[in-house]
Every structure is written in structure tokens, then in C-alpha cells.
Amino acid sequence: MTGGISLGQTSPCVNVFAAGEAAAYKMFEVIEQKPKIDAYDDRGIVLEDIRDEIELKDVYFTYPARPEVQIFSGFTLHVLSGKTAALVGQRGSGKSNVMILKLEK
Ligand SMILES: Nc1ncnc2c1ncn2[C@@H]1O[C@H](COP(=O)(O)OP(=O)(O)OP(=O)(O)O)[C@@H](O)[C@H]1O
Ligand SMILES: [Mg+2]
């Protein structure tokens, strides 16, 4: 009788197991995706020494596609070679653009 009661108590959990299985299926689908870019591919140009200073002096910058959005207005930054610096700012304030400007130089 005790066994029967215990079995009865498991029935509400069956739905939860089914929901978990469905969620896991979606998750494994994402994990098993093969990306077009292989992050572990070691072909291509390997830069030997990328030590350099970063210097931006009074930079004014907008994207041609969105001239109404001023990304930088008079932005100045100097990071010495070998030093670590952190750029802090709200989302969309232009932190990643600092690296793009540096790489395009
Ligand atoms: N290719 C592009 N064309 C037009 N506008 C762009 C382009 N790339 C970025 N932007 C705009 O430039 C601004 C700064 O973007 P950026 O990615 O440098 O910000 P961020 O500080 O790195 O933001 P996050 O904290 O989200 O990484 C944003 O308003 C963004 O929409
Ligand atoms: Mg960014």
C-alpha cells in the first residue's frame, strides 16, 4: 500500500521530466551546432609581435551609415605598450570602436 501511495506521488513529476527533456533537446541542438568559423583553426597569418602603444588624439568619429550618431567627439586615450587598461562605459558608448580604430590605423 505504501508503495502504491509513493508511486501515485510521482505522477505530478512526470510532466516536469517531460518539460526538462524538451528543454534539454533544444539546448543540445545549440551545443551540437557546427559553426562556420573554426576557432581552433591555426591556418592564416600569425602575428609575431603585436606589442604597440594605443594613442587616440582628439578623435571625432561617426559611421557613414549613421552620421547622426556621434561615436566619439574629441576622444583622447593613450595606453603604453605592455600596460593593461580597462575601458568602462555604458552599452554602445564606443568601447569596441577604440579597438577597431586602432586596428584600422
Ligand atoms: N558598423 C556600424 N555601423 C553603424 N553604427 C555602428 C557600427 N558598429 C557600431 N556602431 C554603433 O557605434 C556605437 C558604439 O558601438 P560600440 O560597439 O563601440 O560600443 P560598446 O561600448 O563596445 O558597446 P557594448 O558595451 O555593447 O559592447 C553604437 O551606437 C553602435 O550602434
Ligand atoms: Mg563592445
From TrEMBL:
SUPFAM superfamilies from the UniProt entry: P-loop containing nucleoside triphosphate hydrolases
Major subcellular site: membrane
Coiled coil: none
Membrane topology (UniProt): Multi-pass membrane protein
Annotated keywords: Membrane, Transmembrane, Transmembrane helix
GO cellular component: membrane
Subcellular location(s) per record: Membrane
Organism domain of life: Eukaryota
Name of the protein in its database record: ABC transporter B family member 7
Species of origin: Forsythia ovata
